[in-house]
Amino acid sequence: MRLIERVMNKTTIAEQLGQLLTVRGAAIVACADLSPLPADVRGGLPRGVSIGVPLTPEIIAEIGKGPTVEYAGEYDRVNALLNELCEACAEFLIEAGHQAIPIKATVSNDELDLETLSTRLPHKTVARLAGVGWIGKCALLITREFGSAVRYSTVLTDAPLPTGIPAEVSECGHCNVCVTICPADAPSGLTWQPGMAREEFFNAHACCQAAADQSKDIGFDGTICGRCIAACPHTREYLRRSLA
Description:
- By secondary structure, the chain is an alpha+beta fold.
- It is built from nine helices and six strands.
- Strands 1-2-6-3 form a four-stranded antiparallel beta sheet, with helices on both faces. It has a two-stranded antiparallel sheet with strand order 4-5.
- A hairpin with a 5-residue loop joins strand 4 and strand 5.
- The termini are far apart.
């Protein structure tokens, strides 16, 4: 049975899509107006669906001193789920008569600008523009519900989905927990503001090198750390609620 036929009990395409993705494991489904961005960055499409999956609390609670083998497995599990979700989202939107381009969570080196260590359209940018959260001093997206313990994928589309209100103000305030916990001293401590280049407040190369070194220690062929994720007060509140 076609995806769109399985969810016709809902009244709007946004409700249909939200139901489809949350049943499959998404905790965050939000849409951003991308029209202010350059057309080539957004594939010529005006909106982006941000799909978020939170990391398992029990695993995040154990990475305060660095990544674990379990965290490496969780990283791969969540990436795989996000890739399935963005493919399902794109398929649904295309069946509904719209254009849709899935952008998966796992990024190959071919898609990464090695000079800036960034992609043309970061998932966190779409999530921020959708109103999911703000950019923290650690350069990760921070949400009130899950802190920074969430990974994302994106679907570009022209579907007439309602869009969220972009986060324009950081809620990190005077908190510097992620600054002091970072083994690479990657966050400068400056507060993110819209339009601010990442290198103005965060050293991505230092972060990447430290993460690569720690990944080798656990036999993981990648770049994961997670200390700032586990230390964020919003993440700790998520863990407290989940593990109580």
